[in-house]
Specification:
The protein is mainly alpha-helical. The protein is built from eight helices and two strands. It has a two-stranded antiparallel ribbon. The longest helix is centred in the C-terminal third of the chain and has 24 residues. It is extended. The termini are far apart.
Length: 211
Amino acid sequence: MKFQEFIHSIGISDWYFGVKDGKLNYRAFTGPEHRRIQAHIDLASLIPNHKKLLDIIALWKKFVWIASRWGLKLSESEITEFQHEVKQWVTDYAKVYQMKDVTPYMHVLAFHLPEAMRMHGNIGHFCQQGLEKLNDFITKWYFRSTNFGKNALKQVMLKQHRLNILEETCARTLKWKVTCSICHEKKGHNKTTCPSKNNNVIVPALEFEAP
């Protein structure tokens, strides 16, 4: 209950966690929400009597430092220091919690991320956030929009194709329904791209073909 109150106090009001029909029911945090939690969490008030409180605080304080480094372009010496600190963090994590709680992501963080930083510099290009979100959608579509048979993959791909077509069609249609707040006309532009926004001087604009 304390954690839920804390989450709501930092503006994440739609998060929930509980048991429904004998199963855990919760919403996972997004990337920005994780960063907000890291910035505001006070473990001493959430788990004041935990026997490993100081170790847990030190562990996650070090993780915030690690997370602040992997998006930077570091020198060779800084990458070496980073790798040493990450390996030590994984070791400390296994001591504070359990060895079975160490995930493959932590292995990648300690042994493969420094190598990628040396080869590519900024590793932001390898962000998996979009792929993870697509995996969420495909999992839902599999259970909600297929017959679970041998054609399930084809059905999922066709659904994605239909959505792409609908999104593109709706975007073109809505574009021509928007009234520009400057010239008050429906010509496929808005106040930002309006050709007459600069002192009402008409600037030649691209011609659009309405669908």
